[in-house]
Request: fold
Amino acid sequence: MKKALKSGWLPALGVAVLLGGLLFLRLAWPPLRYSAAGWLMDRGRYELAEQFYEGLAYRDAAEKRRECAYRLADGLFEAGDYPGAEAAFRELGEYKSALVKADLCRLAGLSGPEERLTELFAALDGEPAEKELRLLRGYVRASLAQADGALETALPAFQALGDYRDSAEQAEICRDKALEQARTFMKRRDFEGALALFALADRGEESAREEAYCRLRLESPTGEPLIRKENLVESFAYGDLYYSRATYFYVPRELDEDGQVLVYFSGGFGEPMLYVESMYEYLYGNDSGALLLFRENSGMPEIDEACLEMVDLAEQAAADCGICMGDLVLAGSSNGGYAALAAAGVFSERDLVIPRKVLSFDTELDWRPNCWPSEEQRALLGQAGAAFYFFEQPGDLTSEDAGELLSAAGCPVTWVICEHDEHNVITENAFSLSVFSWTFDETRGLDAGEYRLLPIGKQREWSE
Reply:
């Protein structure tokens, strides 16, 4: 025990002497205190040196103290303490590049450590000339506005910097972000906000259709809601079914801004909706995340009128749900398949919404060729790459003309050969095998035991 005490005396004594010496120096004659502070500063002991300089009215002690604080703030940045570094730099005010570095610390806090930020920090540490400091300040502020999402400030700021560093590249990134945000605003049906961002992105033809759609929706607002309590028909496990104007509307309980829309034309000649039981079975058994519209008598001879009305109904239902019809799928059975084909052209031309997929079930496409999309409509569908799937009976690949015309316009066309040849079974199986869910899930394929997919050009090689 005595030995332990004895051996611990020397280190304790050394610490006491050191502390006592430092305290003496802080209270000592100013020149001596100034020299001691300089000695500490030269050895990187900025915190202790700052304490020595503090309150010392001798020579440039006040300037030296600020330099110590500046170096301490540098250390906080390098250690990744961006909030602490920002506060320290801001306290220094106009000293050197302190305010620019404070903005840089805030930027680092928003975007995380980046090689670009470290390089900027080093450039500021080298006491740049006035012009370089001005450019650095502008670049950092533009980057900060970009990180804050203030693209309307960041983009012109980067453009004003010309070819300084990667300003041109960052300006392009801002335009990309503006385009992305514009599409998000459009999905939320904030069409005014979307148009402002589209203008900022300035993408020309790339977003021309979307901009036109936003203007159309502002000029032609939707009317009386369809999705309302008095129109409720039945509630299912995952959503609710409404009925209005000869159309069923299924609204899932979870439908966000990325919500999808499927419009199904039942076929027939004006009679109530076919496959009602199949539709109910599908709704009971599937957690569909899409807004579904089932047209009750869409196979009527007045297909053009039915398609035009469906555009309005779909837009109204989407507005009721607070979504945009950006991701649209059209489907139809028998005579309703022609309605789906015609609607693809009507939506693209009248409502400026291009369906992602169009499905027809047992339509026998040579029956009503006057219901195909027009040449102008096919061009619009082809430019957007709308995909067509024709579900047909084995051996019944009649009317290849429709597929050839759509393919020539640039649309991917696929025949889906069904295992069964009964007219109604083809649609009933589409419900029971969740084909409608498949249309919105690119990772799933159709059941290989029931369907065989033949892209256009391959259907001629197929035989029963």
The chain has three domains: 20-127, 172-218, 230-461. Residues 20-127 form one domain. Confidence is low (pLDDT under 50) at residues 1-6.
